[in-house]
Design goal:
By secondary structure, the chain is mainly alpha-helical. It has two domains: 146 residues, serine acetyltransferase, domain 1 (Orthogonal Bundle), CATH 1.10.3130; 73 residues, no CATH class. It contains 13 helices and two strands. The protein has a two-stranded antiparallel sheet with strand order 1-2. A hairpin with a 6-residue loop joins strand 1 and strand 2. The radius of gyration is 21 Å and the shape is globular. The termini are far apart. 29% of the residues are buried.
Length: 257
C-alpha cells in the first residue's frame, strides 16, 4: 500500500530571522502547495503586494496563506467553477495536507461556507487545531501521513486526492462522494459502470416484467451521500451523467410501483 510519505517535501519553516533566500524558497513551495503551480505573470501582478510583504518579513507563512486563499487568483482557480463540497475538499488538500476525514467534517465546513462566506471558511481551516498541530505559524503546509487512519476508506481518499491533478476528476464531486457512489470520475466525467457496483447496488430483474426493480440493500448509504449535497451541486452532478447512467441511479433510488 502506498504511503502519503512519498508526497512529503522538505519541511520549510520561516520566521522573522529567516534570510531572504529561505523566504523565497518558502514562497515557491507555498505556491506549489496551494495553487498546485507557480503563478502566471499576470497573476504575479495581482499578488505583488502580499508577496512583497512576505519577502520583506512584514507577514508570516500563515498570514500569507490567508491572503493567498482570499485572493482572486486562488478563488478564480478553485472556487468559482467548483461545487461547494469539491472546493472544500481542495482547500483541505491545499491548507491541511489531507482529505476531509468524514462527511461530518465536510458538513461543518460547508455550513461555514454557506453562512459566512468563502473567506471565513478558509480562515477557519487555517485557525483549526489540525493546522496548528501540524504547521503552527511558521511551517509551509504539506502532505502528511497519520500514524493510523479511522478506516481504509479514509486512507484511500487522502491518497487519491493527493495524487489528483488539478481538475482531473471535474469540479463537482469530492472524492468521498464519488467513492461512496462507486462512480468512475477519471477525466472529469463521471460514469456508473455496472462492473464497479457491488451486487447490493445493482437493480434486480423481476421474472414477470423483466424490468429493473430497486433493491433495498445499501440504499440508506446512497441516500445519505446524496443528502449531503446542495440542490445546485446535485444538478451539476446529474449533468455529468449520461441519460442511461441517470436511469441507473433512478432505478436504485425510486421505489418500483
Amino acid at each position: 500500500m502506498t504511503s502519503t510519505d512519498e508526497f512529503a517535501v522538505r519541511e520549510i519553516t520561516v520566521d522573522r530571522q529567516s534570510p531572504a533566500a529561505e523566504r523565497q524558497a518558502a514562497l515557491v513551495q507555498i505556491y506549489a502547495q496551494v495553487l498546485e503551480r507557480q503563478p502566471y505573470a499576470f497573476e504575479r501582478k495581482q499578488l505583488a503586494e502580499i508577496e512583497a510583504d512576505f519577502l520583506r518579513k512584514k507577514s508570516g507563512v500563515k498570514r500569507f496563506l490567508r491572503d493567498l486563499g482570499h485572493s482572486e487568483v486562488y478563488l478564480n482557480e478553485f472556487y468559482y467553477n467548483s461545487s461547494n463540497p469539491k472546493f472544500i475538499e481542495l482547500c483541505f488538500k491545499h491548507f491541511i495536507g489531507r482529505a476531509p476525514s468524514n462527511p461530518v467534517e465536510m458538513r461543518r465546513y460547508c455550513d461555514i461556507l454557506m453562512r459566512n462566506g468563502v473567506k471565513a471558511m478558509i480562515t477557519a481551516l487555517l485557525d483549526s487545531e489540525d493546522y496548528r498541530r501540524h504547521f503552527g505559524c511558521f511551517t509551509v503546509p504539506h502532505a502528511w501521513a497519520e500514524d493510523s487512519y479511522p478506516s481504509p476508506r479514509t486512507f484511500w481518499e487522502t491518497e487519491v486526492l493527493l495524487h489528483e491533478l488539478h481538475g482531473r476528476r471535474g469540479w463537482t464531486l469530492p472524492t468521498m462522494t464519488w467513492h461512496n457512489l462507486h462512480l468512475d470520475c477519471e477525466g472529469g466525467i463521471c460514469h456508473l459502470p455496472e462492473s464497479h457496483l457491488p451486487e447490493s447496488y445493482l437493480p434486480e430483474r423481476t421474472p414477470a416484467s423483466g424490468q429493473p426493480a430497486a433493491t433495498n440493500l445499501g440504499l440508506d448509504a446512497l441516500h445519505q451521500v446524496l443528502s449531503t449535497m446542495e440542490p445546485q451541486d446535485l444538478e451539476k452532478f446529474a449533468a455529468t451523467l449520461s441519460g442511461a447512467e441517470r436511469d441507473k441511479l433512478r432505478h436504485l433510488l425510486l421505489p418500483t410501483p
